[in-house]
Design brief:
single chain, 158 residues, alpha+beta, Thiol Ester Dehydrase, Chain A, six-stranded antiparallel beta sheet, 2 helices, 40% strand, globular, Thioestr_dom
Amino acid sequence: MTLPEPIGPEVSGAEAHFRALESLYAAAPINRLFESVLEIPEPGLARIRFTIDERYFHAAGAAHGTSYFKMLDDAAFYAVNSLVTDRFVLTTQFNLLLTKPLGPGPVVAEGRWVSGQRRVFVGEARLIDATGEEAARGTGTFMRSRIPLASLPGYAQG
């Protein structure tokens, strides 16, 4: 599979774009509720390290499905948006497969670009628990929006 060229005005500024996306993630108000850190090591790949604790549990003592969705969607989203340097992408659909209950501890969500090069993209993600086992996976479609990344608080290159 060949990655598309990043879309936007500064193809050579991929590292600056990745760091700006990481700042955008950290600035999002929803991330005050989740202890997490985004890392974009290369185009089409994003890793988010989360810490799950009892605040995210349902009545039976494991992470609620909203936590799974948040982690998987974010990882796939940022993997895709790493390839779009001028616009914010939007999740238009996302499917989840939950395979293992998550208890307290560290979790890594790893997202990857799968396909798409212009307007609509497909991304996937998986959750890996502290033992190295997969706890869930998801696949989503994402669409370029009309929202310029540069207009968003938190997205600052340089």
